Amino acid sequence: MWNEEEKGQRYPNFIKESQAAYKTPEDPALGRLFSKKQGEYTVEDYYALPDECRAELIDGVIYDMAAPDYIHQVIAFQIAVQLDAWIKKKKGSCMVIVSPADVRLDKDDKTMVQPDVFVICGKENTDSYGENKGPEEDQKKESEALHAFWGAPDMAIEVLSPSSDKKDRIVKYRKYKKAGVKEYWVVDPKSEIVAAHWFAGDAGTSVYTYQDEIPVRIFDGACRVSLRDIPQSERLLTKLGITDR
After folding, report:
1. DSSP states along 19-51
2. How far from 180 is each of 153, 199, 201, CA to CA, in Å?
3. Which of 15, 122, 129, 176 is the right S-S partner for 141, CB 3.0 to 4.6 Å?
């Protein structure tokens, strides 16, 4: 596993939020990636990345994704568990998926995101690949659809980290809204605030704290999520020496 300095030397032109720098890679297999400029990358380039390089593609721009910390994972897990439990209790047709999982948000070749948590409800994932271009192209699209959700999830949730703050609050907010995501939550562990954006119908934003029972609007508010145990989990992580927060 590389440290951040080693990773930067090998993959120097992937945006770490607002920073971008370009150099020629030592690995010839990545030469094609580094011959392009930000904004020119495609899903094919995204799939060409080595497995150890965690990234997102948004409008042709590759964003480097730092590994999430433990509290980030605890928050995403807690939200996913509560959503999944409610759906199963109601025998619903929705599914909760956690990162890393690809979402081909615009069904084009310029964007591939990985929400921390997302919910899909009764959508077909393999029937809309755009214009058919012959059997080989169609087969390729079907293969890709097995590894990525095509289109907009009903709900997307992002947990902020220092390296993703701007991307999650601004870039992804705009992308999710335009793509047709109905509900988008941004969880800020530092302030213990959840901004719940509703993009369908009477669009608006509601702000909650960890002490609130947060209504899930794609389920008409009948499902509610609580993050009251997160501070306790954070203290436990500190006690165990896993985090120094």
Report:
1. B------S-GGGHHHHTSPTT---HHHHHHS-T
2. 8, 8, 11
3. 129
Name beta bridge partners: 118: 97, 156
> pLDDT digit of tens for each residue in the chain (245 aa)?
445 555 444 544 555 544 433 344 555 545 666 678 899 999 999 998 888 788 999 999 999 888 889 999 999 999 999 999 999 999 999 999 999 999 999 999 999 999 999 999 975 443 333 344 455 555 555 555 567 899 999 999 999 998 899 999 999 999 999 999 999 999 999 999 999 999 998 889 999 999 999 999 999 999 999 999 998 888 888 888 887 76
Which residue is it, tokens 């433990």? 70
Q: Tell me, rounded to whole angstroms, the distance of Cα 183 from its chain centroid.
A: 14
The count of residues in the chain is 245
E strand spans, 28-132: 55-58, 61-64, 94-98, 102-104, 117-121
Asked whether the beta carbons of 115 and 99 are under 8 A apart, the reply is yes
- Return the SS3 of 120: strand
Q: How far is CA 86 from CA 9, 211, 213, 224, in A?
A: 45, 19, 14, 9
Vertex 53 angle, CA 117 and 113, to 5°: 35
Is residue 49 within 8 Å of residue 55, measured between CB atoms? yes
What separation in angstroms does the CA of 111 have from each of 36, 77, 105, 157, 170? 16, 25, 6, 17, 16
